[in-house]
UniProtKB/TrEMBL annotation:
Keywords: DNA-binding, Phosphoprotein. It comes from the Bacteria. This is LytTR family DNA-binding domain-containing protein. It comes from Chryseobacterium gambrini. GO terms for molecular function: DNA binding. Residues 133-201 form the HTH LytTR-type domain. Residues 4-115 form the Response regulatory domain. The modification 4-aspartylphosphate is found at residue 55. Pfam families: LytTR (PF04397), Response_reg (PF00072). InterPro entries: 2C-system_Tx_regulators (IPR051271), CheY-like_superfamily (IPR011006), LytTR_DNA-bd_dom (IPR007492), Sig_transdc_resp-reg_receiver (IPR001789). Gene3D superfamilies: 3.40.50.2300, LytTr DNA-binding domain (2.40.50.1020).
Length: 228
């Protein structure tokens, strides 16, 4: 399988290095490269992109502002000379954060994380009548009954699925996992939390209690929370 890549980089030398790195890996193919987010948006509309290599300090529209404007963005590996934006990047579910100058070995680590994520997205293997799912954990297929889920917690690029039996950790963005859930039964209450509607014990102004655990309600999600 080939993964289509888009390079968004305003430094010609850095763009050339990134393209060379990608070309050394047969599974990856550069389908577009540009120096600003405006042109990048048009490329996203005309090509199927699996992975973006995103510089942050771009003209007109900065990297993360561009990323926030994309609906259902591809996976993103940040390439930057500035370390201070790493936390914000992981809150946006980026795959990795590469600091320039980027070594080839560090670049390969980032590609490995991306491929792991792509495999994790295939972890949701089966869903029959939306009663259960199978997920891949350590090369095993684990069956999770949806009614057994209390809530789902996001920790950077991982999620923790809290169930009656145990807590399962899977490397997949919470937004991708959310797509597999029936919204009549599950509700997103925060950028880091999805809860089972039937398991809600208490609803307050700023938090929800599920299985005795207090979970915060995000400001942008308050309008989706059922009435007390």
């Amino acid at each position: 399988m080939k993964y289509n890549c888009l390079i968004i980089e305003d430094e010609p030398i850095a763009m050339e290095i990134m393209e060379h790195f990608i070309s050394q890996n047969k599974e990856f193919h550069v389908v577009g490269k540009c120096s600003d987010a405006i042109y990048a948006n048009s490329l996203l509309n005309t090509h199927k992109i699996d992975l973006i290599f995103l510089d942050l300090h771009l003209p007109v529209l900065k990297g993360f502002e561009f990323l926030k404007k994309i609906k259902n963005p591809p996976h993103v590996i940040v390439t930057t000379a500035f370390h201070e934006y790493a936390l914000e990047g992981y809150e946006l579910n980026i795959v990795d954060y590469l600091l320039k100058p980027i070594s080839y070995s560090r670049f390969l680590d980032a590609l490995g994380k991306f491929k792991h994520l792509m495999n994790a997205e295939k972890a949701i293997l089966e869903m029959e009548n939306r009663d259960f799912i199978f997920i891949n954990i350590a090369k095993r297929k684990i069956k999770i009954v949806l009614q057994d889920i209390f809530y789902v917690e996001s920790i950077r690029e991982y999620i923790k699925i809290h169930t009656k039996q145990e807590i399962y950790t899977v490397k997949i963005p919470i937004s991708k996992f959310e797509e597999s859930l029936d919204r009549n039964n599950f509700i997103r209450i925060h950028k880091s939390y999805i809860v089972s509607r039937s398991k809600i014990e208490v609803i307050c102004a700023n938090e929800i209690v599920v299985n005795g655990k207090k979970l915060p309600i995000g400001r942008t999600y308050k309008s989706f929370i059922p009435d007390k």
